[in-house]
């Protein structure tokens, strides 16, 4: 084949793989973007707080099973081939997403609705566990060695583009359906996945198997037991651990902090209107996405490792000032109240719990727990002082002391002291907020842009799909996927709206050290 023909062939591979993966991420992230609406539709049989917890749990279920999907589909990918495996995964993902759009609500079929919803989320997570590795490997095994970072970086844009696409479709649908969005309009983005699925399948059916896999099978070098070879052999299992703790775990928390947690922080902590927050995040995604390609290209010049480690270091060092800046520019009244109003919960320590409740079954009924929960919901910063055993819980807001059991009066006192019920749109400074969100996105692109090429190059072709997929999805599905819930629990326990940042900072720092010590540079390595 001529160089021009090969170039066109590679461009088609990159386009087809990336487009299908964009659609798959779109399907997966629709649920997270619509968690509040879905909680009302499918968990209306319980109180509002528990309903939202259940909705988040169903969202997390999709992340929890991703490593299992990596094992199932990674094994198939190493035995049968890259192309057919990620063709199967996209059909499962698209079908499950379309089914969510048709699923009757709790009011129509009762408890069957949330059960079916969780099952569909599990299917989505399993499918995603097999999709990413297949797409990244397929592109890498077609790419010339000197452009492998550049070509695989297009796959790295797909998670962000999928999130962006989901936000755009939701915003347009909200605009078109108006108040009916919360009733039935929310189903439209899910139902549209049928069109995206048809396009993806049509594109991927036109592709051929990767040349590396074809040669490997023709020469009889394929693995007959890829799971056993990947994790039962210490030399390869060691590579899996290095990939996880020396690259992927940190990449995952930086990715989710820069996109999901940033959006959560804007809407839930800073009380910015959801539509405004989505517009800001969508704009940051547009500005930041080209940097995936830039850092992928740069990794072909200077190496994968230095770019990833630099991104981890910058994130760990600057998260606190960046999120403090978001507070001052997005909700200056909240920042002023934090600086000037002292809020103290005084309670018997034995009555205060760590309010981490991932399954929604625990009841936090003590006055200490109720007072701290009310303050956390209002984004009030507070400290907890120990009172004598058996003493009643009190809340002091400035010079005003309140019975801790009267949460309504506690909330009213914080409002009177200057804590705002919501961010004032007139006070929001768009440009600084957008720049800070874009900076978070650039960190995401530094750690994520080169990592596909790095992971593909670490592992041998006979077990590449299985070996690469598991650390990627443990890192992103567990370390990253549970970041919002872990960080929220830390905030509620500490009384500090920034305390949840310690989770991504500590994980990023651990990965930085492990990567510096044990991760080897892979640029230019042969994939054969």
Provide a descriptive summary of the structure in words:
The chain has 528 residues and is mainly alpha-helical. It has 2 domains: 3-330 and 426-517, Growth Hormone, Chain: A, CATH 1.20.1250; 341-417, Glutaredoxin, CATH 3.40.30. Helix content is 72%, strand content 3%. It has 24 helices and 4 strands. Strands 2-1-3-4 form a 4-stranded mixed beta sheet, covered by helices on one side. Helix 5 packs antiparallel against helix 10 and helix 8 (148-177) packs antiparallel against helix 15. The chain is globular, with a radius of gyration of 24 Å.
Number of strand segments: 4
CATH topology annotation of the largest domain: Growth Hormone, Chain: A
- What is the overall number of helices? 24
Helix content bin: over 70%
Rg is 24 Å
Mean pLDDT: 85
CATH architecture level-2 label of the largest domain: Up-down Bundle
What class, by secondary structure content?
A: mainly alpha
Number of structural domains? 2
User: Which residues sit in consecutive blocks of at least 5 with pLDDT less than 50?
Assistant: 1-7
Please tell me what the overall shape is. Answer: globular
SSE order, one letter for each helix or strand: HHHHHHHHHHHHHHHHHEHEEEHHHHHH
Strand order of the largest sheet: 2-1-3-4
- What would you give as the CATH superfamily of the largest domain? MFS general substrate transporter like domains
């Amino acid at each position: 084949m001529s160089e021009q023909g090969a170039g066109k062939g590679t461009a088609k591979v990159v386009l087809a793989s990336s487009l299908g993966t964009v659609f798959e991420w779109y399907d997966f992230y629709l649920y997270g973007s619509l968690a509040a609406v879905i909680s009302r539709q499918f968990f209306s049989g319980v109180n509002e707080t528990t309903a939202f917890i259940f909705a988040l749990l169903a969202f997390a279920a999709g992340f929890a099973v991703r490593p299992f999907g990596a094992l199932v589909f990674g094994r198939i990918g190493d035995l049968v081939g890259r192309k057919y495996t990620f063709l199967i995964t996209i059909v499962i993902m698209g079908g499950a997403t379309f089914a969510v759009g048709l699923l009757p609500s709790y009011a129509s079929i009762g408890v069957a609705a949330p059960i079916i919803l969780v099952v569909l989320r599990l299917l989505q997570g399993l499918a995603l566990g097999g999709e990413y590795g297949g797409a990244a490997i397929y592109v890498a095994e077609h790419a010339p060695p000197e452009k492998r970072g550049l070509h695989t970086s297009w796959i790295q844009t797909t998670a962000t583009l999928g999130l962006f696409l989901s936000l755009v479709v939701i915003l347009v649908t909200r605009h078109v359906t108006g108040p009916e969005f919360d009733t039935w309009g929310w189903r439209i983005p899910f139902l549209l996945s049928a069109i995206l699925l048809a396009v993806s399948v049509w594109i991927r059916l036109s592709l051929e198997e990767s040349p590396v896999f074809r040669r490997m099978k023709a020469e009889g070098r394929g693995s007959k037991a890829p799971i056993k070879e990947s994790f039962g052999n210490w030399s390869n299992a060691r590579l899996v651990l290095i990939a996880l703790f020396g690259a992927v775990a940190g990449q995952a928390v930086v990715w989710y902090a820069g996109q999901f947690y940033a959006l959560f922080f804007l809407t839930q902590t800073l009380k910015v209107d959801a539509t405004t927050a989505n517009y800001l995040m969508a704009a940051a995604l547009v500005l930041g996405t080209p940097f995936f390609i830039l850092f992928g290209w740069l990794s072909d010049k200077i190496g994968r490792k230095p770019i990833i480690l630099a991104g981890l270091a910058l994130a760990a060092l600057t998260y606190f000032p960046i999120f403090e800046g978001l507070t001052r520019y997005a909700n200056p009244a909240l920042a002023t109240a934090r600086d000037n109003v002292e809020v103290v919960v005084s309670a018997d320590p034995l009555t205060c719990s760590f309010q981490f409740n991932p399954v929604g079954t625990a009841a936090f009924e003590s006055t200490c727990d109720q007072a701290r929960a009310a303050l956390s919901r209002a984004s009030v910063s507070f400290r907890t002082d120990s009172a004598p055993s058996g003493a009643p819980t009190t809340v002091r807001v400035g010079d005003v002391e309140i019975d801790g059991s009267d949460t309504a009066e506690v909330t009213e006192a914080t409002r009177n002291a200057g804590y705002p019920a919501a961010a004032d749109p007139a006070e929001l400074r768009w440009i600084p907020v957008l720049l800070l969100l874009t900076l978070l996105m650039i960190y995401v692109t530094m750690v994520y842009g080169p990592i596909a090429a790095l992971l593909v190059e670490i592992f041998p072709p006979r077990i590449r799909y299985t070996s690469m997929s598991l650390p990627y999805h443990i890192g992103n599905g567990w370390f990253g996927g549970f970041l919002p819930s872990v960080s929220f629990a830390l905030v509620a326990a500490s009384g500090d709206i920034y305390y949840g940042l310690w989770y991504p900072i500590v994980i990023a720092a651990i990965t930085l050290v492990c990567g510096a010590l044990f991760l080897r540079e892979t640029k230019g390595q042969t994939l054969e």
